[in-house]
Write a structure and sequence with these properties.
Blueprint: H1 4-17, H2 19-51, H3 56-105, H4 108-114, H5 116-123, H6 125-158, H7 160-166, H8 169-219, H9 221-224
Helix pairs in contact: 2-3, 2-6, 3-6, 5-6, 5-8, 6-7
Length: 230
């Protein structure tokens, strides 16, 4: 079982192996967040112009700009998710290849002690979990973090007092996240062990069924060839 430092080194290794894709993902996500912040600001401009007695033409132009930024955000988010999924697929390929190479480099006795279920779980479920985290969770967390950062900066520029009020809830969220992360690791490890045990039992059942069918076929080969015999 890897410690936190080992997990961080592995994650940075995956990022360095495909650094160009990661830079593109971060750039697209940042542009999508910036495009998403433009419509609320433009809506405020519409309110200001209407309050000042502005004409219909200025309001219409701002409305068209809001629609344009909304469409631009959708397009940027689409390409950001596309880049994230491609990065996740390449990361899963790299993880599976590295896993197979490391298993083949181990002595046969060590591999047999690990068990079939554990090997199956690590090469399928664990790799899929990493791909899901990289392809879905990581982009969502990054976009949400950028949105919070940009909104806080904008609020501080408009009203420092209001910005300080917005920071009041951050320590609470940090404490809740720490509380969850300190307890979730044990639960995830227990879930992985249960999956390994389940896969091991399933592999043993399949192997036993195959062996039993082979014994039955060797004992009565003629009988198995009779399609009408139930």
């Amino acid at each position: 079982m890897a410690d936190r430092a080992g997990v961080r080194r592995a994650a940075w290794g995956l990022i360095r192996a495909d650094g160009r894709a990661m830079v593109g993902l971060l750039l697209l996500s940042s542009l999508a967040v910036a495009a998403g912040l433009a419509p609320p600001w433009l809506l405020g401009q519409i309110i200001n112009r209407v309050s000042a007695g502005g004409g219909v033409g200025s309001v219409d132009s701002l409305t068209v700009a809001i629609a344009g930024f909304a469409v631009l955000q959708v397009i940027l988010v689409r390409f950001a998710r596309y880049a994230a999924h491609r990065f996740a697929e390449r990361a899963m390929v790299e993880i599976r290849s590295s896993f197979v190479d490391r298993v083949l480099a181990l002595p046969a006795a060590v591999v047999e002690r690990a068990g079939t279920g554990d090997l199956m779980t690590r090469s399928t479920g664990d790799v899929a979990a990493v791909g899901s985290a990289v392809g879905y969770a990581a982009p969502d967390v990054f976009i949400a973090a950028l949105q919070v950062l940009f909104i806080l900066v904008a609020v501080f520029v408009l009203s420092p007092l209001l910005g300080l009020c917005g920071l009041v809830g951050l320590p609470i969220m940090w404490l809740v996240a720490r509380w969850y992360l300190s307890r979730s690791r044990t639960a995830y490890l227990a879930e992985g062990s249960a999956r390994s045990a389940l896969a091991d039992d399933l592999a043993g059942t399949v192997a036993g069924a195959r062996h039993g069918r082979g014994v039955a076929a060797a004992a009565a080969p003629g009988r198995l060839r009779q399609p009408t015999d139930r």
